[in-house]
Amino acid sequence: MKVNIKKKAFGSDVIFSDLSLTIKEGVTSFIMAPSGWGKTTLLRIMAGLDDDYEGTVESKCDNNIVLFQENRLVEGISVLSNLKALGVKEENSIDVLSHLSLYEERNKKVSELSGGMKRRVALSRVLLLSGDRYFLDEPFTGLDDECKREIAFYIAKKLSGKTVVVVSHNKEDSLLLGAVDTLVLGE
Hints:
By secondary structure, the chain is α/β, with parallel strands linked by helices. The chain is built from 6 helices and 8 strands; from the N terminus they run βββαββαααβαβαβ. The two termini are about 25 Å apart. The chain is about 30% helix and about 25% strand. About 35% of the residues are buried. It is globular.
């Protein structure tokens, strides 16, 4: 996927200009930039969710799976119900929840979970969906180091061979996910 953005602005605030990058297909690529640089905006452009910019994204596809910065969960229903709402088999949901250390919480309402647990539920949803490309925005927010390592290993295994683009400001995340390319922007 080739990204060439001549200009992206919100009103008079230019987010980036003359940005060009290439994302390799079938591997994990990591985009690192300081907070406030526009990582989320760039991810949304690459995923086809934002077309209000001057430039092109070559090789767009329609079957993108996105993990947003916000967890976007239904707080008043159970963890398992949040996953079943995707139309996936319950046994697949149980399997992913087990790998993300959430099996015991499967029947709890999302509103009863900690921030890190909610993030793992959001990751579970992404990992249950089948897509051509996966875009992960700060996937490990709220997770402690041990949990982060275990989940990164599972994500790398589960999405092996897929095109995965991860944005973060934490270089360690790139190593944990086994990223083939690390692009550092905004320096």
